Amino acid sequence: MKKEFLQYTPEELIETRDFVAWVLHGKHQTEWENFQEENPEFKLTIKKAQRIVELLEDRRENLAEDEILRIWKNIESFDNQQRKPIRKLITSKILRYAAILIFALIIGGTAGYYFIAGNQKAYVFSTEVVADSGNQSRIHLSDGTIVDLTTKDSKIAMNADQLVIDDNQVIDLSKAGGFVDSKMNEVVIPFGKKSRLILADGTKVWLNAGSRMAFHNKFSEKKREVFLEGEAYFEVAHNAKVPFYVNTNDISIKVLGTKFNISAYKTDKQTETVLLEGKVAVRDRSAMGLLSRETVLAPNQKASFNRENKTISISNEADADFAIAWTEGWFKFSQQNLNDVLNKLQRYYNVQFVFDSSFSTVDLITGKLDLKDSIELVMLALGDVANIKYHISGDQIVIEKK
Fold first, then answer.
1. Are both 191 and 81 inside the same structural domain?
2. Are 50 and 13 in contact (CB under 8 A)?
3. Most buried one in 39, 58, 232, 257, CB count within 10 A?
């Protein structure tokens, strides 16, 4: 790392291609981390410069280093012309840069483009998730065709211009065209069923019961994007040049690594993202522009978005693999309240739990359930773990304390 960087101001760092490449794409990550450790007095300068680059970064597209440098040059030019009035209005250096950029872009006729937070647009699914186990899982293709998925654990693979279902049904997508921003395929998985998908870029997705996801036949050359409601586990195919976004009603996740689980059911109080490998950045989709802040997760961490107060909290997950045990047919939980456990079982088996209003479901329990077993066997095991009595009547399960 160049020692002369120690003499740089934040503004001068931004004009350095190596610095911008590190901030945007993590290039030479180890070298920059070591450089900061060896020169702790320089950390504040780096932090200020990072913040400015993040403000400049296009949240809808992945800007190259050259584009960031070009925009910064335009800001400097505008700043030199407008320095006095800007300083009277804004005292904070970073906010001044942001304001200058907004004014410059308005003059250029492209206001708003660079400050639209990534993936703020909403997606409206064409159909609801159906709870009745008698209903089939389905895929609604972008051309309007609806295809039933006849197995309980269906498989879907995008293969060139073909959609392969359960390794035996092939659908020709060549006439459906490539990337069209407004037209997406939708997979709808009712309660009691699951699905596995391989997307056009090779990304693998496991969809849990009561979930639906929208995705393109082919991704654009600038970003890969899906919309999710429910729960899914992702193993994202690496492509540093084309970022991958997972959008829910509440949050947008920019994938900087590979393996993570997200649970975003409408009926739950919060949306949870658990990272197993790599790196992801979680963003509140309800916040616009500069107010929309990213929270970056490290492996074995969980981000919980509270829908009521619109906050994201981070916790360490020693047993992060518990979050994806459902993909292998297991439900593992540690110090989880009984109500959350019952909610998951309710979706997975498409049953309804009934208990008296005086019954407490906040007790914390730890255990492992084999979801490959029948609901009868699962309840037998849960009865011992949670110290409860139960009575099964059709699709209803009445719960009582022992």
1. no
2. no
3. 232
Q: pLDDT tens, 357-375?
A: 777 777 899 999 999 999 9
Look at the pTM and tell me if it is higher than 0.90.
no
Q: Which domain holds residue 392?
A: 329-401
Which residues lie below 8 Å from residue 164, measured CB to CB, with a gap of 6+?
156, 157, 170, 171
**Alpha helices (H) along 145-256:** none
Domain shared by 203 and 338, yes or no: no
Is residue 44 domain-shared with residue 148, that is, in the same domain? Answer: no
Residues 37 and 100 in one domain: yes
CB atoms inside a 10 Å sphere around CB 286? 15
- End of a domain among 292, 320, 348? 320
Q: Which of 13, 15, 12, 23 is nearest to 63 (CA)?
A: 23
Which three-class secondary structure state does DSSP give residue 199? Answer: coil
Q: DSSP labels for 136-159?
A: PEEEE-TTS-EEEE-SSEEEEEEE
Question: In what helix (H) or strand (E) does residue 103 lie, and over which residues does it extend?
Answer: helix 93-107
**pLDDT tens per residue, range 83-122:** 545 444 444 454 455 544 444 443 333 323 233 334 445 6
| AA identity, residue 131 | A
Six-digit token string for 117:
């937070």
Q: What is the per-residue pLDDT for 72?
A: 55
Q: Are residues 160 and 262 in the same domain?
A: yes
Structure tokens at 52: 């400015």
